Task: inverse folding
């Protein structure tokens, strides 16, 4: 049938088809439907789409939901997505730990005395080797600290006759505390790398 409609059928097959269509009602009905379909397609070949057809169709399509656009953006930028998620979680954990950690604490050392559970004291004649970190309290140095002193969220550093060989830093804001944490982590990482190089 298709060969006949495409005018590519050999003459002997054409005769066989005509004879069969005279005796088979189903094939004759199918053939007539094919003829009508071909005629319809040929009659529409001269139809052209109006100008701006594509733009008009696109304007009438439903708008994409914001969720789909966001998901697509995340799919196209996985590294930025991972970095953003990491920053969000780190920021949340930093603020949570800043707000929750309101207990007095101090670096453990046998030469540091605690007064009223709010003040760390380095007594006269005593030396503390290494850094001291005081959280949510004060420090009074009457002896010597051979290192840095950091007061986090404390009232103040109580000046006295003692000496500190390193830096004295008071951190009373969350961003200062965050910067302090970053410096601590960086120095620990550098120490790890240096110890690995020394081991080799």
Result:
């Amino acid at each position: 049938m298709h060969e006949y409609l495409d005018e590519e059928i050999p003459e002997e097959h054409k005769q066989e088809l005509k004879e069969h269509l005279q005796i088979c009602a189903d094939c004759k009905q199918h053939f007539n439907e094919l003829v009508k379909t071909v005629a319809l397609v040929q009659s529409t070949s001269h139809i052209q789409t109006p100008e701006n057809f594509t733009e008009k169709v696109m304007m009438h399509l439903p708008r994409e939901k914001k969720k789909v656009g966001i998901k697509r953006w995340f799919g196209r930028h996985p590294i930025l997505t991972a970095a953003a998620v990491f920053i969000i979680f780190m920021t949340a954990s930093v603020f949570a730990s800043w707000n929750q950690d309101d207990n007095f604490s101090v670096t453990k050392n046998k030469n540091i005395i605690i007064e009223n559970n709010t003040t760390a004291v380095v007594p006269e004649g005593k030396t503390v080797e290494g850094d001291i970190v005081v959280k949510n309290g004060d420090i009074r140095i009457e002896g010597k600290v051979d290192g840095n002193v950091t007061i986090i969220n404390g009232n103040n550093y109580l000046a006295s006759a003692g000496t500190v060989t390193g830096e004295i830093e008071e951190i009373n804001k969350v961003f200062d505390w965050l910067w302090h944490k970053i410096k601590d982590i960086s120095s620990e990482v550098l120490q790890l790398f240096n110890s690995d190089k020394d081991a080799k």
Remarks:
- The radius of gyration is 42 Å.
- The chain has seven helices and eleven strands.
- The chain has a mean pLDDT of 77.
